[in-house]
Design brief:
It contains five helices and four strands, in the order βαβαβαααβ. It is α/β, with parallel strands linked by helices and 180 residues long. The chain has a four-stranded parallel beta sheet, with helices on both faces.
Length: 180
């Protein structure tokens, strides 16, 4: 009815916390089905027409947890790492066919899925103070990055993973004790 899709934004995720040592395989499979396999199914469905037209953009929402393991998160980190690799592989395979593919990896974004963490006393302030920008992220921060990557302004960007975390990933080395 609306014509061909020029952009696909894959944005799905569930979290079932727990240690990998005791994670039931059914929970692993459920998380992988949503957090990774669903991305491939949508990419295949929408990507076929994009490849035929030799034009289109896919933006996959991964996570900072794809690069920095998040303990006690069940299959969340491995699933989002899979999204990041799926995105790079699609960029390689579909780039010559005119389809760009990028990922956005949010970090410390206050969403309905993470709201329970922020409701715990002191967590919101602690997370805001951890980021060099001194705030936690909001869904609009991710939406702005997605709009850019999906737009013609990002026409020569493909296969990238844009970390949107307020600078959190950059502070790791600063946390290592050093003499002096």
């Amino acid at each position: 009815k609306l014509g061909p899709a020029d952009v696909l934004v894959n944005n799905a995720g569930i979290l079932r916390p727990g240690p990998l040592a005791t994670l039931p395989i059914a929970e692993w499979n459920a998380m992988m089905a949503v957090n990774l396999t669903g991305y491939l199914i949508c990419a295949q469905a929408f990507g076929a027409a994009m490849r035929e037209r030799r034009s289109g953009a896919l933006v996959h929402i991964a996570s900072i947890a794809a690069s920095f393991p998040q303990g006690q998160s069940g299959a969340y980190s491995p699933g989002k790492a899979g999204v990041a690799m799926l995105s790079r592989q699609l960029a390689l395979e579909w780039g010559a066919l005119g389809v760009r593919r990028n990922a956005v990896s949010p970090g410390m974004i206050r969403t309905p899925m993470s709201e329970a963490f922020y409701q715990a006393q002191g967590v919101a302030a602690a997370r805001a103070n951890l980021a060099p920008l001194r705030r936690y992220g909001l869904p609009q921060d991710i939406a702005d990055a997605v709009v850019f990557l999906a737009s013609p302004r990002a026409g020569y960007i493909s296969g990238q993973d844009l970390l949107v975390d307020g600078g959190v990933a950059q502070i790791t080395m600063g946390q290592i004790p050093r003499p002096g």
